[in-house]
Amino acid sequence: MRRFFADPANVGENSITIDNTDDLHHMLKVLRLSEGDKIEISDGMEWEYEAEILYLSRERAEARILDKQRFTSESHVKITLFQGIPKQSKMDTIVQKAVEFGVFRISPVFTARTVVTDNGNFSKKVQRWRRISAEAVKQCKRGIIPEVTEPCGFTELLGALEEFDLVLIPYENEDGVTLKDELRKFRQKQGEASRSSARGSSPEYNHLSESGGLSDNGGDCRIALIIGPEGGFSDEEVRLVTAAGGKSVSLGKRILRTETAGIAAVAMIMYELEL
Questions:
Q1: Do 151 and 215 contact (CB within 8 A), yes or no?
Q2: β-strands 15-18, 61-70 pairing
Q3: How far is CA 75 from the centre of its chain?
Q4: Of all helices (H) and strands (E), which one includes residue 68?
Q5: Is the separation of the CB atoms in 263 and 94 below 8 Å?
Q6: Residue 11 gets which letter from DSSP?
Q7: Is residue 262 a contact partner of residue 70, using CB atoms and an 8 Å limit?
Q8: How many angstroms from the chain centroid is the CA of residue 153?
Q9: Under 8 Å between Cβ of 3 and 39
């Protein structure tokens, strides 16, 4: 079944209204859906539904709720990808694949070596990336549409890092610590805190189970992943991030392109902390 999104305000006790014009056009003209067809609907917050179309026009669709379930495809590992803005259409691929791998938020960043400039029409790019995020979500049937924020500068990025449990900055000149090293140290630390919490001595932590995965009733684990543009980071940028508590890590023996590095790192994080 095809997946669509509805505003929580449009979800009633027995029916759901869809009024997004792009979705309605896709339902009518591309998928050729009609009354009686079944679809999946997410409220983008907590619930997903199986529903049957009762009415469909260019202005709105009404669907009867057949089944209601909490999200099953969303991870408690909430990764924010701070992506140094690359040239050309590389960001399109980064957004699409990062969303498929489960990233929670994507924040484009202007760094010291970013070649791209904002000449007044950057908002159009952001709108395109948001559409790509929404389309990728429907394809992989996620429960939420990951936010693509307005671009920020490196100083703004530094100011946002304190909200995260772990900050990772892959750096090509790092040869002492790998991403695997930091993720396993983090998992062990959080696992110890979770066990301590279970004994009642540390109630503020409950992220990870003893097996290393997320506990069923634990809280979200917030991770910042900072990826540089084509030219990489300057030494000063890496110094500033590590001074703010971030961890400089290596992704391996080979230098990855910017459009590969973030996607690879997200996959590694999910493998280590979610599966």
A1: no
A2: antiparallel
A3: 9
A4: strand 61-70
A5: yes
A6: B
A7: no
A8: 20
A9: yes
Evaluate whether 197 touches 203 at the Cβ level (below 8 Å): yes
Bridge partner residues of 52 (DSSP): 38, 64
Kindly tell me the sign of the dihedral angle through the C-alpha atoms of 17, 19, 24, 26: negative
Enter the CATH code of domain 3-70: 2.40.240.20
Q: 222, 126, 120: which is closest to 165 by C-alpha?
A: 222
What residue segments make up the domains of the chain, in order of their start? 3-70, 77-273
The H helix count followed by the E strand count for the chain is 7, 12
Query: Can you give the pLDDT at residue 201?
Result: 52
Q: Which residues of 117-141 are buried (b: 16+ CB within 10 A; e: fewer)?
A: eeeeebeebeeebbebbbebbbeee
> Residue 47: phi, psi to the nearest 5?
-120, 150
Amino acid at 207: H
Residue 176 has pLDDT above 90, yes or no: no
Residue type for position 35: E
Please say whether the beta carbons of 217 and 202 come within 8 A. Answer: no
* 71 pLDDT more than 90: no
* 3-70 and 77-273 in the same fold: no
DSSP state letters, 237-255: HHHHHHHTT-EEEB--SSP
- CA angle 246–250–251, rounded 5-degree value: 115
The amino acid occupying position 71 is: F
Tell me: domain 77-273, CATH 3.30.1140.32, correct? Answer: no
Sign of CA dihedral 153, 154, 155, 160: positive
Backbone angles phi, psi at 54, to 5 degrees: -100, -30
pTM of the complete model: 0.83
User: Is pLDDT of 215 > 50?
Assistant: no
In degrees, rounded to 5, the angle at the alpha carbon of residue 182 between the alpha carbons of residues 179 and 184 is: 105
**Cα–Cα nearest to 165, from 243, 271, 77:** 77
